[in-house]
Amino acid sequence: MSRADSRARxxxxxxxxxxxxxxxxxxxxxxxxxxxxxxxxPGRLRPSLRVGQRVRVPLGRSNQPVTGYVVRIDRTAxxxxxxxxxxxxxxxxxxxxxxxxxxxxxxxxxxYACSWGQALDAVVxxxxxxxxxxxxxxxxxxxxxxxxxxxxxxxxxxQAEILELLCKAEGTLTVADVCRMAKCTTAxxxxxxxxxxxxxxxxxxxxxxxxxxxxxPSAEDDHDGKAPIALTPEQADVxxxxxPSLGGDAFATFLLxxxxxxxxxxxxxxxxxxxxxxxREAIVLVPEISLTPQTIRRFRRRFDRVAxxxxxxxxxxxxxxWRAIAAGEIQVVVGAxxxxxxxxxxxGLIVIDEEHESTFKQETTPRYHARDVAVKRAQLEEVPVIxxxxxxxxxxWANADRGKYTRLTLARRVAERRMPRVDIIDMRLEKPxxxxxxxxxxxxxxxxxxxxxxxxGQVILLLNRRGFHTFILCPKCGSVLKCGxxxxxxxxxxxxxxxxxxxxxxxxxxxxxxxxxxxxxxxxGGIGTERLEREVREAFPQHVIRRMDSDTMxxxxxxxxxxxxxxxxxxxxxxxxxxxxxGLDFPDVTLVGVVNADTSLHLPDFRxxxxxxxxxxxxxxxxxxxxxxxxxxxxxxxxxxxxIAFAAKHDYLGFVAQELPEREQKGCPPFGRAVRLIARGxxxxxxxxxxxxxxxxxxxxxxxxxxxxxPAPAPVMKIKHLFRYHLKLLAPxxxxxxxxxxxxxxxxxxxxPIELAVDVDPVSLL
Length: 766
What we know:
Blueprint: E1 24-28, E2 37-40, E3 54-59, E4 64-74, E5 85-86, E6 89-90, H1 99-111, H2 116-123, H3 126-129, E7 134-141, H4 144-149, H5 157-168, E8 173-174, H6 175-182, H7 187-194, E9 199-206, H8 219-222, H9 233-246, E10 252-258, H10 264-277, E11 281-285, H11 293-302, E12 306-309, H12 315-326, E13 332-335, E14 347-353, H13 370-381, E15 384-389, H14 394-401, E16 406-410, E17 421-426, H15 443-454, E18 458-462, E19 471-473, E20 491-493, E21 498-500, E22 507-508, E23 523-525, H16 529-539, E24 545-548, H17 558-567, E25 573-576, E26 589-594, H18 608-620, E27 631-636, H19 642-648, H20 652-666, E28 673-681, H21 684-701, E29 707-719, E30 722-731, H22 734-744, E31 755-760
Parallel strand pairs: 2-5, 10-15, 10-16, 11-13, 11-14, 12-13, 14-15, 17-27, 18-25, 18-26, 24-25, 26-27
Antiparallel strand pairs: 1-2, 1-4, 3-4, 3-6, 7-8, 7-9, 19-23, 20-21, 21-22, 28-30, 28-31, 29-30
Helix pairs in contact: 1-2, 1-13, 5-7, 9-10, 18-19, 19-20, 21-22
């Protein structure tokens, strides 16, 4: 049947599904389009095209070639066959996406209100999509009929040797490979090709030979050997409860709630050993890969083949790791949030360490939460998942209360070590010296530091604000200097002689006069880590001090260098932002100081108290982890705030009991679900008008159970010259929100230059 003859319509002119031109590839794109597009598969591509590959296809009226993902192959197409276009090129061999990942990304698209193509594009790293570290090479193959008949062929000795070499090779050989291995010129190869005994094909090859183990362990990694640590009774009990799931093929979610220093990592390691012994693989997600060298070192001591996926890998390295994981060469994958998409072949366990951390949330489309994606992937793969934390997210805790997750508890520290004593310092009682500003570290903190250092201990200081001064104020007119493109106060960085915007990274020269009233005596106020470092150096000049924040930890390996020096006691005082609050285990740290505990306490976000509690509790857990007792001092202007008071008592249960009723009263997660819509654009009035129209549409379509709050200016109203307004949707469950978004979003498409971002289960409301 010709293409023209195969068109069929009913009496109303509707298009029938057409079979004559099949098969058809169903293709989706990294664009906000819900539709799966049908493309005819030309005969030359039918043997090689498979689901999960990327293809080049013409799109739109201009037929511009674009890259898409094949999500299905159909015998029919729900389109006029006269309008079906053909696939131009297959980009991947083998496919990048397997069946489970297709199901997972389809779920992500529905849950996080994005297109299937956008979800698929997030799964594959850029280095893999670019096929970094590879090249197109001419390779030699032997037809199957020649392989079978090679013993009967009358060939010159050199040609016979080359043919035998190609037949026995474990992989693809290039012309250069054959010349090197057979110690010959290209002439005998050309003769074989001329006779049709050898064919030349184009293949994508690695630019360099693949080295042995990925990220081989260092001498420091090996010094403790591979022997597991003896388990505590609590750890053994937890593993006993995990064992049935680790040894079977069934989905289960476990919340491992363990106080800091209780040995959660050893539980992870022992659980993974059981999975690896069955020939399975494990994925371990950590909040920030560059901040947990100790954890990674412990994994490498226990397992031979560990892949570590982090932001400092080059595209070529990331591609190599991806291929090694996909080939089944890796036992354990350790990485940040995107490692949840690692292409393991026989997944047996997923572990999320510090599951409460906000860094597991992606802040660009698709705005997924790696913890929740991990639970969904575990369900699809029928494997267990362990969520570990000393301060679990309240959503996770509530899921355990409801029976969705199984709670496992480690209530005691290893070796029966005591939790450190925590003292709160009321900074309202601290008075500045005559003619001097208030110090970053008060008198009590300074005395405790001196005592700890004199006793040969080490000190960690946390201040979750970087820079020298956190604002520049005009005392005459009261204006605070802000970024020209953002509604954010500039931070003074004295070392660089710059005023920086920590939102868009814009740099300014500090002004000599107030831009508004021209007053020439500006006030520099607030305390950042740079100022704290200078003050500590002045107070303790005989001690070695290092600062860890995003200003000082720019170069690859900088984290590990500083932490190695601290571990070796070459550094006495370590100070920095929240990056030093996580995962560090140094037995000689006898004092931890929190310099300003209420930095995030008063932010306009319903999670502000929870985040404050988690940060203080986590950093407090960095001390008392060896044989020496630890002490924690918390400087705060809000000593009576429940988040700080409960953290000082290491009382997570008390904080939960106080915080959950407030959440329930407001209908905030975990007592309901939230969606945040953020509109942004260069013209404020247009943004407001657009979001007002969206709000009207949502009210018209919403189920009665959905509450709409706003529109209103976002707490940070302008970023990078774009005005930001938002509205929030609250409902008892996800279903009415998803139904509403599916109905409303296609009708709420903004016109350029306005953009609309949809954030399901938002972690930040700023």
